């Protein structure tokens, strides 16, 4: 498969990305590069400080290579066998994922076209991100590019990991990394083979968990059962889910989340994905007893854009296409669109003119 | 009707209450007392400073009497012909309206029972407040009291007035006062007669507007069309309604407020109140073009309890009783209950234990 050590490029060096990069690095089966952006200088000179439940206290860890930007990586002349994306996925934000990774896909493809030694190499794009149908944006991008003499494979990663960047090049990782990874399209044999290879490179026995995902679509819909309902409700109310349930109506069961979960299951079913209804109580009950703020709630509180479109917009558009009624998801989505607009305004990503009461620039 | 000037007691000396009291005072047809609470000392010594679009700049205005508390008014030995309540109406808060006004109703009733000169006097309770079926809480209170030798009448006031207390005994009043006032029960002839008398006392020709409400139930449901939908949405998103609409989905009409308004109309209809559907566009369009934060939005931003139960809880309970489906109102209500719980926690009105993830005290 590889005549030399494969090269992995991690884009998105936050809490998730740095632990992902370190997991590959310490297993020793590949070259690991990272896009460090604002942390570039400190990573180059001092490296990362990592406090990890899986790997202990690490001071001054440096990946094999470090780039200031995706553009810099693209200009390095390197071929990246795995482009691993651990950024947030915000298509309605200033830089959608396809725009972020385009330069390095382009440079990979160009090497394949222009140099015999790279001909027919596989460029694996690994999206370790939330949401459903996030691969479509990449597929659309690829359709605009010259992919002759190369093969591009799309790999889905769903990760459970409580890892946070708490300061410049400073990571705290609290829960054992659990990565489920496989081809977006299970019929894409190349993507399946390169997923298996990735798992081999990623596994650190006794430290992390990584397993092959033979049905990425199912895995993503299943995670959406939580993300489209519980995550979104906590974002709307800016509260952990335990409080949401406890502060809600006393006489009836909390009336939004479970019906919304039923709707997610109905949309998935319309796409041929069967999700066991028992998972509703499973997700509900474990979350109920854990005072924890999910990602979208944290985003709202920090004034950061939410992954709203891939978590809720995409399922709702699928529901509309397949004529599945989703009143609860619809209302939650509409309300969160407003909150997302508020965050955009506060970050200068849109301008609302109070005189005309209209959005004048976005 | 009265052998001497009627005595009005205004409870709730905020922006609305002080202008209401002044309107009665300046018309010169009654005695006006006010419960000034924390402003008591400054009102007693210096009086109110009022900047009013209707009455101009007033420095050091003092009502005829000023009490520190409702209990103090109750102990004054005075009979109050009109108990005018301009507080917020928050039955789920620490002091529901019935609890606030009980002492002064009790002292009125006692005078009627024990003194021949007060026998069969009418104690008018005027609720100038938002919401629907707010009179029921008072009716329930009266059922627990000895009302022999007295007549209690319940009067509904719906007021449009942009008046705010901006500091101690300092009021800014921006839009002409428009008061619609009449008996909660149009068949209660006493309440109708005393409503007419009140209007006569309240009117200041060329300054304010006051009109007799011959169908208070209709007037309240009509105002609810706005309050239960637009007011609540701005509270949920903590944004003016123009922004809510502008930040909402572009491809479809803003998908929450108009369906919610349809639901309000359906509940009203189940109670025999017909509201013209044209009012939906009327309220929607005027609000859309006005960058203005309604009361519940302001409450959330100030961390104050919202009038959630009288604006949304009561209509939803009526809907349940009459088997009217109100999915949109239901979701908005459930979400706002959570926000109300958050405000209660921040004000120490309930205690949430993070260890057990349960509300332990309320």
TrEMBL record, chains A, B:
Keyword Transmembrane belongs to the record: yes
Q: Where are the transmembrane segments?
A: 7-28
**Classification via InterPro entries:** 6-PGluconate_DH-like_C_sf, 6PGD_dom2, KPA_reductase, KPR-Related, KPR_N
Identify the residues that the record assigns to the Ketopantoate reductase N-terminal domain, covering every copy: 9-185
Q: Which GO terms describe its cellular component?
A: cytoplasm
Keywords attached to this entry: Membrane, Transmembrane, Transmembrane helix
Q: Where is the Ketopantoate reductase C-terminal domain?
A: 217-337
What PANTHER family does the record point to?
A: 2-DEHYDROPANTOATE 2-REDUCTASE-RELATED, PROBABLE 2-DEHYDROPANTOATE 2-REDUCTASE
Q: What is this protein called?
A: Related to ketopantoate reductase
Q: Which organism is it from?
A: Saccharomycodes ludwigii
The organism's lineage is: Eukaryota, Fungi, Dikarya, Ascomycota, Saccharomycotina
